[in-house]
Amino acid sequence: MSKVPTPQRKSSPFIRAIKSDGFIEKLVLLVLTAILSGIFVPLIIKSIDQSREARQAVATAQAKLFDDISDTILTLETLMLDVSWFGTGDAKNAEMQTRAFDRYTERSVDLIVKWRIEASRAQALASPETAEKMQAFLNRFFREQDTPTNRSWHECRTCDWQAQHEKNVKMLTEANRLILEIGSEFQLTAKSSESR
Q1: CB 3.0–4.6 Å: which of 79, 149, 166, 195 could bond 104 by disulfide?
Q2: Nearest to 172 by CA among 103, 77, 46
Q3: DSSP state of 51
Q4: How far is CA 92 from CA 151, 181, 182, in A?
Q5: For 46-102, how does the pLDDT look when each residue is reduced to its tens digit (9 = 90+)?
């Protein structure tokens, strides 16, 4: 008796694909990619978020330092200007000058301490050059404003204060320039935000 050949069933393309050598390799790669994506993508996103938060914290600290520096320097300069202004020929007023000198004397020590603290903080939040400029400006303040004003006050209250007042106005202009430089470095000025 002769055997009748059994018709071979053709396997479906899906079955052939599953049985192919490349399928298992691709499946393993796909599963591995899914696992790695599930682990590394959240880690990368977390790292990016932490980096963004750190940059934001520095920017916030710089903005606060900028406000503090501006307030300290301009308050001190304004108090100094009042002393010399009321001694000039245009505004000569002994009583107002005495009040201005008393205000300056009363507040200057605390403001100078703040200035030193802010210059120290600038070493961490700004460039070393900015911290040095702040310290150099404070040294000039003592040499060109505080010491001459105190000497004039104690030696000659009725002197003409015009020359000292002009020096104080010049120092105020330079203080504003220093503040602008710090704001620019911290990217807090209109010019620095345009360049971003």
Answers
A1: 79
A2: 77
A3: H
A4: 19, 35, 36
A5: 777 677 787 888 889 999 999 999 999 999 999 999 999 999 988 889 999 999 999
